[in-house]
Design goal:
It is built from 12 helices and 13 strands. It is α/β, with parallel strands linked by helices and 402 residues long. The chain has a 5-stranded mixed beta barrel with strand order 1-2-3-5-4. Strands 7-6-8-9-10 form a 5-stranded parallel beta sheet, with helices on both faces.
Length: 402
């Protein structure tokens, strides 16, 4: 029930604690999964105390159980183990402390863990977090590399030494975190977020040197997977060895089989790059030289052509051709003129020979009537009709002699 309180009518601490205890007592038993971080088994004590922690969050709760409950799984459970507890929440009013009273404890087996991871993998795959098109390319030559790894670990040493051996000028921003246990997930998540927020960091490597399935569980945590998926900086996963495939490998932009492999894939080798530059430079020189030689041969071939050796030769040849054509034209034109002149002379002679004037020159005359008609027969003229007689020397009037 809701309580009515005020500054003038407050509730005592004991009353508040009692009310909270009453509300909690009404809760039923629940199944809770977590990781045992502290375990206390005092000799002769009938109660076992432990702390159950959420591996993905910085939250823990105290758990108590009778010795006979814990003895049933004592041989297979120790600190760091994952368990499922059937317990009822309890409130200890004098200290205001919440705890769980366990009635049954079950260890979480490897097979069950792998089945849950497979289910989580399918769920995240359906969301598209592992899609290849989401992968970001790594920079060719990162200036500052972010490294998330265990403190003074072999993974840290492998990455730093191999990277600096390959490219001495590379710089690192290292975040040392817990890489297993209950604190691993929140610390790794925080480290990745911090490095991703730095503008100078070009790529982030999350490295660990292998381990059992239980040791690598933090790198399959859903919160860590989603954090890496949301990073704007490319992330390289270098967890475990070749057979180990935590979910971080699927969401990372690049998977490296080992921390050493991560250093090789992230940082180029200065010797190899110098050799590549030298090879490309030689290849470019050979290409340029071949191009120049080919163009020189083409130029020499072009200069060897007659038109280039003697540029005026073509003009002289064309001039000779023009002169020849001009002379030929003149000859042809002269022949045409001569032939036409001869034909004209012959035609003129024929015309002269066939003209009436030539006939008259030979003593003939043409008789015409007064109206100009030529007389061709005697019956065309009457007895006293005057006629004009045209001879070579002129005209005269004549009459018919009856």
């Amino acid at each position: 029930m809701a309580l009515t309180t005020s500054a003038d009518a407050p509730l005592p601490v004991g009353e508040v604690s009692r009310l909270i205890g009453g509300w909690i007592d009404r809760l039923g038993a629940v199944w809770v999964e977590g990781q045992i971080t502290q375990l206390s088994r005092r000799p002769g004590a009938g109660v076992v105390f432990m702390t159950l922690r959420d591996p993905s969050h910085d939250i823990s709760v105290s758990v108590t159980c009778y010795r006979q409950v814990f003895d049933a799984i004592a041989d297979v459970v120790s600190e760091g183990a994952r368990v499922v507890v059937h317990a009822k929440p309890e409130w200890y009013a004098p200290r205001g402390q919440l705890s769980l009273r366990a009635a049954e404890i079950r260890p979480v087996g490897v097979g069950e863990l792998l089945a849950r991871l497979e289910q989580l993998k399918k769920s995240l795959t359906a969301e598209g977090l592992f899609a290849p098109e989401r992968k970001k390319p790594l920079p060719f030559l990162p200036q500052l590399v972010g490294l998330v790894c265990g403190r003074a670990s072999a993974a840290e040493r492998d990455v730093l030494e191999n990277a600096r051996h390959r490219w001495p000028a590379v710089r690192f921003e290292v975040r040392n975190v817990a890489v297993q246990g209950v604190h691993a997930v929140p610390q790794v998540v925080q480290a990745v977020k911090e490095l991703d927020a730095l503008d100078d960091v070009d790529v982030i490597i999350v490295a660990r040197g292998g381990g059992s399935v239980e040791d690598l569980l933090p790198f399959s945590d859903e919160e860590l997977v989603r954090t890496v998926a949301s990073c704007r900086t490319p992330v390289v996963s270098a967890i475990g060895h070749e057979p180990d495939t935590p979910l971080l490998d699927y969401v990372a932009d690049l998977r490296a089989s080992t921390p050493t492999d991560a250093a090789k894939k992230v940082v180029p080798d200065v010797g190899e790059e110098n050799e590549r530059v030298r090879w490309l430079r030689d290849r470019a020189r050979r290409s340029v030289e071949a191009l120049v030689e080919r163009e020189e041969r083409g130029l020499a071939h072009a200069l060897a052509r007659p038109s280039m050796e003697d540029p005026h030769r073509m003009i002289d040849e064309r001039a000779d051709q023009v002169d020849a054509l001009l002379a030929r034209g003149r000859r042809c034109f002269g022949h045409h003129l001569d032939r036409s002149s001869s034909e004209l002379t012959h035609t003129h002679a024929r015309v002269v020979a066939l003209s009436p004037a030539a006939t008259l020159q030979r003593g003939y005359a043409v008789l015409q009537k007064a109206d100009g008609h030529v007389v061709r027969a005697p019956e065309e003229v009457t007895g006293d009709e005057p006629l004009r007689a045209r001879v070579a020397g002129g005209e005269m009037t004549v009459r018919r002699d009856a």
